[in-house]
Structure formats: structure tokens, C-alpha cells
Amino acid sequence: AFFFFSLALHPDKTLVATGQVGKEPYICIWDSYNVQTVSILKDVHTHGVACLAFDSDGQRLASVGLDAKNTVCIWDWRRGKLLASATGHSDRIFDISWDPYQPNRVVSCGVKHIKFWTLCGNALTAKRGIFGKTGDLQTILCLACAKDDITYSGALNGDIYVWKGLNLVRTIQGAHSAGIFSMYACEEGFATGGRDGCIRLWDTDFKPITKIDLRETEQGYKGLSIRSVCWKADRLLAGTQDSEIFEVIVRERDKPMLILQGHCEGELWALALHPKKPLAVTGSDDRSVRLWSLADHALIARCNMEEAVRSVDFSPDGSQLALGMKDGSFIVLRVRHEIELDMTEVVHIKDRKEVIHEMKFSPDGSYLAVGSNDGPVDVYAVAQRYKKIGECNKSLSFITHIDWSLDTGKPLTSKEEIKGIPWASWTCVKGPEVSGIWPKYTDVTDINSVDANYNSSVLVSGDDFGLLKLFKFPCLKKGAKFRKYVGHSAHVTNVRWSHDFQWVLSTGGADHSVFQWRFIPEGVSNGLLETAPQDGGTDSYSEESDSDLSDVPELDSDIEQETQINYDRQVYKEDLPQLKQQSKEKNHAVPFLKREKAPEDSLKLQFIHGYRGYDCRNNLFYTQTGEVVYHIAAVAVVYNRQQHSQRLYLGHDDDILSLTIHPVKDYVATGQVGRDAAVHVWDTQTLKCLSLLKGQHQRGVCALDFSADGKCLVSVGLEDCHSVVFWDWKRGEKIATTRGHKDKIFVVKCNPHHIDKLVTVGMKHIKFWQQAGGGFTSKRGIFGSVGKLETMMCVSYGRMEDLVFSGAATGDIFIWKDILLLKTVKAHDGPVFAMYALDKGFVTGGKDGIVELWDDMFERCLKTYAIKRAALSTSSKGATPEYAVGIFLFIEMETTGHTEGEVWGLAAHPFLPICATVSDDKTLRIWELSSQHRMLAVRKLKKGGRCCAFSPDGKALAVGLNDGSFLVVNADTVEDMVSFHHRKEMISDIKFSKDTGKYLAVASHDNFVDIYNVLTSKRVGICKGASSYITHIDWDSRGKLLQVNSGAKEQLFFEAPRGKRHIIRPSEVERIEWDTWTCVLGPTCEGIWPAHSDVTDVNAASLTKDCSLLATGDDFGFVKLFSYPVKGQHARFKKYVGHSAHVTNVRWLHNDSVLLTVGGADTALMIWTREFVGTQESKLVDSEESDTDAEEDGGYDSDVAREKAIDYTTKIYAVSIREMEGTKPHQQLKEVSVEERYGVASFACIWCT
Fold first, then answer.
1. pTM for this structure?
2. Partners of 746 in the beta sheet?
3. What is the DSSP string of 136-201?
4. Using CA atoms, how far apart are residues 95 and 88, in angstroms rounded to an integer?
5. Are strands 492-497 and 1118-1123 parallel, antiparallel or unpaired?
6. Which of 216, 139, 214 is nearest to 180 (CA)?
7. How far is the C-alpha of 511 from the C-alpha of 829, rounded, in Å?
8. Which DSSP helix (H) or strand (E) runs through 584?
9. Any residues with CB less than 8 A from the CB of 231 and at least 6 apart, and which?
10. Whose CA, among 327, 399, 671, 734, lies 20 to 30 Å from 638?
11. How is 309-332 classified by DSSP, letter by letter?
């Protein structure tokens, strides 16, 4: 809640634009008849909006910000689009106006300046007005444009300055005797209003017509100052500095009507309501006490005191009014007729020095308790002319609130007695009955006032955030549920119920305002408030709190797990260039060594097993051609069922989290994880990116949907506020944006009937959105007595225009008409994860593994399909079953993959196109990799596993588990053969020795490698000596020597069977023939470590049988290919993106033609085919060469180094030193292509003059 700072009326006299103060201030354009928002303008101004003006045809709006640059903006306000913006001035701007006779001219004025602006295209340029000798350089407070380039302006000294073009041509001296705050142009001429309390009317040539001095009228007073003036025919409106609005009819100018007034300067704290009549009294730092009628919403009387008033209270019969003053005194006034305040003082007593902040008469009217900031509460006897008869002085600090009990004067001794006391009123913010108004775990003191309504058992509170909240009373447990209402701009100082409990009055400290709210009692919830005279009795858009209810249903484990997923990355892909740069700067002193060349062979991604269902939904669709689109890791997959083949969209560089399909064409939008998370719109036929949308979301994009016509796209981000952005995706333009919800939003859906409406569902959330210009207005679903606020997992629009259906975590379908809940239908046992609208009905899918077919109003369930198979984990979510169930079966049968946890274990069969994977999801899976690409077998394990290996004959498969045990299973039947449990920590690598597979080496995070004899099933040796956990092990080709890598980056060697340690020199290591090479340390793979390897670690490596190609997988999701051996630092490579986060393992198939890779968090198994030199496609989509700048290509060259060090930014501003002669080199020689460069020796210097 922020206060409004500026206002402009549209030429149609119906629409109003208002600008607010705040960190990210909005401008709202709204309809003054139905008070609905028409457009929201945002994301440009900061601090606040100082002034606003519509142009003469009302199409454009000019605004000025309160930021340091006083930014001036021009908006196409209906579209919410910024047309132009420019720095306004170094000091405050007070007024801005369009020239009605020149459509692209704007004038602004302010502290010691006036500026004339021209709008041309999207450029806004200004020229300063020239004061010259005609008048002093003045602060200009207001202005109006006239024809023939004339501008009239009001100055701080009371003169009118008249401008023609940029020049000051004359002044009208003494137009007012002090600053002219307001100038209004209309058909009749001009009206001006000033600090001197005068209104002056001028004709169209600015010749004086008349002058009205409001100070001299019967309502006038000394110091009356006019801030705003408006003239229409024979009527004038004037707004004053003291919160009054006068209407003056020119013929009766000495009798202005006071149509509205309020408190002015200082803070407003004092509020009391009459005990028997609809009257309220307020007192403020402006030293006035005012009596208000609740029935007429009008001020009845006011009287001025000598001192600021901070508290008031009526006596129980309403005959006397006590006022507590800022100077520590209090006054009691007699109230007569309830029409006016009788000024006769009953008493004026000063017993205290500090402010009297609280006072209350006892219920029987015999005592008055007065609490001051001095600490004690004084008690006075009313009948004895307010003689002081007592003092409560146990308080350690100032007094904030006092309440009397019903039976006055009984001494209290024990806590128990206090519990049973009936209190006459409850306005205290502390105490057991109001614990619930405070948040659960914080000690805050930001609630200023409460008042209990015993009739309806509700409590209203006012706090420092400008909120009114409604609680049930009593509310005993901290963090109770509430409804909240916005209206006040800063702190709400006081809240009180009227005597008949129909109204609540609230006062605002800094905004000096008195709000009157109507209370609407309600059977089910604890009532609603609304601001006074609204028709239709709707809620003044209250928001429910999200505090837990006592009868809260059990949380669903899957949903809970999903909401706790953290999508933050320590390092995002976008950070890589920066890291490279930093490491270069860090190492710049090192002379550059020649880097190893990149390999000539390359990879092409062929097939991926897996589907992301554990935290995504509605991410599976049929295309027009009957192909299926879904995503896994950083890849979007277009799957052809007939050919069992995949085409892959590889434009993303990190996890894809959301996917949606265009309603008409085969276009797909996918959103990913990222620091600046991108949305790609691409064509499923060509796999080409049509549009890339960035700059709006942080962390990631969790939900997407196309509008019904396919022209717009809506996206939801993973920022804390889960912002919703509406895009014109072809243009790449943001149309509108808003904050979504503080918890995760699962689904966003565009309304098929209205292009500018959306609905979002999520954790305890359903909101209906209406686009308004550059923003959205929202309404929460109203549950009434039909249902309770639940977590919603899916949503769909029906065939009928205003119906919406949402699926809840409880298994119910909620049916909405507009924003009202009509009914709920029990559909599933457990959460409803997916819903899809068909031509005549709906399909739903739930955690219970059942797919249901419904009619178009969820009245009958037409059919159910139970999907049961061990292979399909019950937590696979997110299917959009298009025509019943085919798609579910498809996921299950054809791209089954690992589910939650990470996949690390990967092993290739010694001579068949088969591999095994093992994962934290406690499954071992065997895959066929020929053209079939299918899963052959799966078995459950007692624990998750992180490594596996086939025996040399391919008959046995060893699997290492996370609890320190391992087992050997039959590779065909996956049944147990033998198992051991010798270690406590996780088994991290496992390998059979070559040929007969006599030994099995098992490495653990206990820092040991155990050697087992396979035939006797006995442990025969232990390799000791590693100072950290073991990461990788390899056997030599004789099956005697074991190479071990540890987490401390040690490379160690042990001899089987006993595990005796050997020290081997690097040169000798190279000569040893290894059976496999999966290690990442040592001189032969020094070059695989990137320059910034303190951040990223290489998790796995695999060498081809012919020892020519080394593939690695790292924490950045890159699969890289190096030429082996990889000696020297930072070798060149080819890198491939597909996995999202870390690549945990890589393995070549037995014939080196295929590389298998698994991703940790993305649980995907990717199959890459090796493209040999000569068979490669001209340039691979997915390969990215490593950095290829000249310095690194051909070793070091002094000229190249010098050129790289040139600082071009300073050069831009320098004058060209000499003329160019001859032809530029790039026009003479064609650029050497990447392919040619690898084939030809590079020359550093190509051409010299």
C-alpha cells in the first residue's frame, strides 16, 4: 500500500490516471464509474510518480518520476507500452502538460527551470526556456499551453510568466501575492490558485476576469492555501493544503461550499466512537477535534485546541468527551445535542509531562483511566470533578492501550482470576485472546491497534504496513488466519467498531485520513469488510492469509518434495565466459604453452531415455503429425512412435522445466533454468528457434501456455514472487507482467474465449487474472461454504465461457464460474496431477495411477484406466492424455527412465550393444542400444547405487550400493548371485580385472579399495593409503595393477591381490597398457581440467579401445571430446550440451561407435553416435568448439598479444589519427574456416603493409 502522489483526468472525463509513491511505483488508469482498472503502467519509474498528463486526444500519457533523474516518460497507455523516456531535470519537476495544438510537444516545469520537449519517433528531446532579462530565474510551479506556441506558467513569487516558443516574453506581476500552485486551462480561459488563498479567473488571452479570496469567506481562515483548482462553466473546485475541497459558484462567491475535509499536518492517532449513536470523533496533531456522522459520511463539527490531540474517549452515556494532549495534559469537553461539540471545558488537568496516548472511561462511567508516556496510568473520579484517586505504576515503559473489565474496581491477585474476567472492551494488542494477531516466530511491534467485536466474534487490527486485518476472536494461537484489506498508505494508527458493529473506522497516521468500512457478517468465514458506499456489496478485495488451519489435510509427499526443490545453481551456464576471463586474468603471467589440438571425430546425440515428470507437468503433447513432444534434461524431444526415433531440439543449455505446444501450428515453447532464464519458441519440423525470450525471469521458467490464437505466450518464473509475463512472442516483446504468488505456481492457462484473461494454480493458490495495459489485475477464487483453499495441481477451461475446472492435491475437482466456486467432485485418491480438456469432456490423471474420462461438467465418470506396472514409478506426473490413455502407456513402455535422486552408475557390456545403469532411485536397469533403444530389464535394490560393472564374459554384473554393500547379479536375469557388506560409506566405483575377470576391485568413500577373488568369493586384499574418498579405479590389461583416484586429487597405484602400494613415475604410467581408462588424473589427462576447475570438477572419463579419444563429463553438463593423450594444460576439445546439470558418467560402447552418458540430477541416459572424420555433417548443431582465438591457436605471438591488449573504449572517443589508405585486410582475404584451420598450420601474421 503506497499513497497516491499524482492524478490526471482523461479528456473523456471518465478515465483517471493515478501515480503512486514506492520502490516500484505503478501508474493505474481506471474507470471512475465502475472503479475497475483499465491499464497498469510499470517497470520504468522508481521512488514515485510526481506528475501525469494525458494528451488532447487521450491516446498518450506523459509521466514524471521522483527518481534522481526525474525521468520523463511517454506511454501508449492502453497497450501499457513505453514509447519514449528521457532524463527530466537535475531537480524536481512540478508540472507537465501537452500542447493541445502541436501533438508532439510537451512542456514541463520545476525548480528554477521550464523545458520544452519534442517527441520524434521514440526520442524525447528538450530545450530549456530562456528567462533572459524579462524576468528573474524562478521556480515554476504550474503551467498551461495555449495556441500560437504560447505557454502560461505560474511562478513561486506569484507572477505569471508568459512564453512564446522558448523565450520569456512578458510577466504578469502580482497575479497572486505568493506562489501559484495550480493552473487550469478550459474553454472559458484559465483559472489559477495560490498560496495566498485566492482563485483568479482569466480569459483565453490571459486578461483578468475576477478574483475570489477564500480566506475572506465565511468558511475561510488565516493561512488557507490553494493547491489545486478546476473551472467548469459557473463552478469552481479548489483543494487546499489542509485537506479541504471547496466548491464555489461564481455568482455566490462569498459562500463557498465545503464538500469534503479531513485532518491535515502531523499525525492522526485519536479515534473514538459514540456509545449510542453513529458518530465518531477524531483528534490530530493539527490541533483539531472533529465530529463525524457515520450515516452521512460527513463532518458535523470541528473545534480547534491549543495543543496537538493524541487520544480521545466518550463517556459511556456519550455526554462527555475526554481528550489526551501531546503536552501531558487532558481536557474533558461537554457534548451537547450530538450535533456540535460544546466548547465548554469541564476540566483541564496536567499531571504528566509526556504525551497522553490512551484514555478510557470505565463501563459505568464513574472513572477515567489516563495512560501517558511517563509510564503510570492515572485514575480519576468523574463525579468528584475528576479528582485523581489512584495510580497504576508497575509499568516499565510508556502506556499504549488500556481496557476496563465489566465489574470495575475489584482487586486482582492470581493469573487464574485474570483468565476468567469479562472485559468491557478489548483494544489491547497483547494478551492470550489476541496471540493470533502476531506472526509465529518474530518479535515485532508493528500492530498499532485492535478492537474486538464480541457480537460476531471477530477482531480487527491496524498495523504499520497500512493493512487492516480481520481475525476470529479470540485467536489464541500465534499466526492465526486473517483477511487483509488495503487502503491506507502508511501506518494505520487506530481501528474501532461502531456502537452497532456495522462499521469499522480506521485512521491513517501519515495519510491523515479516516476510512469507514462496512462489516458484512458471514456464516462461514468470519466476515468481510468493505469501504463505505459501494454498491453490490462485494469484498474490497480481501486476501486470505496462508497460515495453517488446525484441520489441515495430510501433505502429499510428492508435492511437498517438489516445492522444496531448489533451482538455484552456484554457477549458471551464463557465468562461464566470465569465469574463463577471470582465470585468464589470474594466470596472465604464465607464458602460454601450445595447447593440444581438438580431436577430428565428433559426436551426434541420437537418443535419450527418460522423461522429466518428477517436478513438471503438462509437458507432453502430440503434434499435428502425430509425433510426441516432451523434455528431459536440457533437451526437448520430438519422438516418432512408428520409427521409434527421436529428433532433438538442442537450443537450451540447462534443465528445461516447462513445455507447451502452439494451438494451431507445430510450434513448441520451452522454458529453462538460468540466472536469466530463457524461453525458446521453436518449430518441431525444422527444429529451428523462432524466438528467444529473455530478461524477465530469474532461476527458471516453471510454467508456459500459448494464448488461444497462438500470438501470445504467458510464462511463470521461479523468482520469489513467481512473476507472470505475457509476451508477444514473435516480436520478442513483453506485453504485461505482474507478481504471481509467494509460493510455487504449477500451471498457468490462457482463457480460450478471452485473450486477456488467465488463471494460475499452485501451492494454496488459484488466481484469475485480467490483463490491464502493462500489468494485470487479479482476483482470488472465492470458496464460500463450498470448499476450502487447497493446493491446486492442474487447471483447464471448459467449453462454456466462464467455467474453470481445477484439480486439487486432495483428489477433488473444483468447478468455478467466474471466480466463484460452484461445487467440488471427488475424482482421484490423492492429488490430481493432470487434466486435459477434450471436445466433449475431460481426461484427468492422478497420483493413484488412474486415468479417468469425464463428461463436460464432471457429472459422470465415463471410463477409468488403471495404469499398473512395476516399471512405472507411481510418482510419474504430468501427462496430458490427449485421447485417453495412449500417451500414458507410451511413456511407460517406451521412454521409461530413472526417476528421483541421481544417476551415477553406468556400464557397457563387453561385446553386446547393451548397457546397465544404477541410480539413487534404488533401481538397476538394463538397456538395449541397437535400433530398438529399449529397456530390457529392471529390478529394485534395497538401497540406491552409484556404480556398476559387467564381468569380462558379460554374464555377471556387479553393483555398488550407497550403504557400503555391493552385489553381483546375473546379467540376463538380474537375480542375485552373491553380495557383501564390508564398508559403511558409499561404494563409488567397481571393476572386474581383464580376461577371466579373476578379481573384482570395489572402491568406497571409506578411502579403501577392497579386492575380491571372484571364484572363491573371498576378500583377498585391501588397498590403503588414500587420504580421501575414492572416485575412480582402473585395472591394467594384465589384471595385476590397479590405478586409483581420490577426492584429494591423488593418483595412486596398487598391486593385486594383496593391495600393495607402488610408486610409479609419470613416464612409466604412460607406457603401461590399461584395460580401461576412466580415471581423471595423471599426466595423460592433465589437459581435461578447465582453467576454472576450482569451480567445476570432471566427474568421469572414458577412453576408446584404440586410445585415441577421451570423453569426459563435468559438473557443467558438458560432454567433451579430447585427443588422447591429453598432455599439457587446457587442451582443446569439442563440447556438447544435452545434460542439464552435472554429467556423472560417460562410457564408450565395446566397439567405440557409441558414447553413453548419464546425467546426475536430470536422470537421463543419452546415446551419442561417434561421427568419424569424413562422415561428419558439415557443421554439427550441437558441437561447440573450445575457445579458438589466435593467441591460443598458433602459440604466442607478440603482435597478436599487443592487439588483444588494446583498450577500444578509450579509442572510441579519440580522434582518428590518420586517414586510411588501400583496401582493408578483411576485404582482401577470406576468413579461414574452422575446418580448414584444423587442417592447415596457422600463421599468426596474415598480411603486412
1. 0.73
2. none
3. ----EEEEEE-STTEEEEEETTSPEEEEETTEEEEEETTSSSS-EEEEEEETTEEEEEETTSEEEE
4. 11
5. unpaired
6. 139
7. 52
8. helix 576-586
9. 184, 186, 188, 189, 191, 201
10. 734
11. EEEEEE-TTSSEEEEEETTSEEEE
